Amino acid sequence: MLSYSKKFDTCNKITSTLLDDRTATGKDDKAVWAYLHSIVETLGKDGMSSDKSEHEDGDVQVFRLKTMPWRADFSHELQIIDEQCLAGAATFTPQGSKPTKHFCNANRESSHQAIEGLPRAFYKPSWLKDQPPRFTISDTKFQRMEIIVARP
Predict the structure, then answer these.
(1) In a structure prediction context, what are the per-residue pLDDT tens digits for the chain, which is 152 residues long?
(2) Nearest alpha-carbon partner for 86 in 60, 64, 51
(3) H/E segment holding residue 63
(4) For 113, which DSSP code?
(5) What pTM was computed for the model?
(6) Per-position DSSP letters for 5-20, written without gaps between them
(7) Which of 37, 48, 54, 90 is the most exposed place for a label (fewest CB within 10 A)?
(8) Domain map of the chain by residue range?
């Protein structure tokens, strides 16, 4: 199983490396990588979904992500990051690590506790309405971005 910490470190490295590249080169998708990096940074290690290895797809190991019942759906954004990891495996994965595919498994929920203090946009509204008034939410505003990815 891939640990929350390792997943965070990999996602953080990918987004920060690509954001630095976009800043240096002035590429058009700099705002997208800034947005993706802010998601990873805000979720932190404890906000990452856990992975359960299921099988291999050719030479690439496949992980099924457990859903977090409290977390807003960031699967599209995290999939974009994972795809960059697969595309640049030599750059982004630690020595000896294999690139992996991640798929959300809606039937398996993580038992990982909800993180307090995140912006409202990071919680599922249906989950949040059932929380006690003492549950802390950050006043920080977070604007979701719709990212459209061209597929070959």
Answers:
(1) 455 678 889 899 999 999 999 999 999 999 999 999 999 999 999 888 755 455 555 555 555 566 789 999 998 998 899 888 777 644 555 544 454 554 444 555 666 789 999 999 999 999 999 999 999 999 999 999 999 988 76
(2) 60
(3) strand 60-67
(4) P
(5) 0.78
(6) HHHHHHHHHHHHHHHH
(7) 90
(8) 4-128
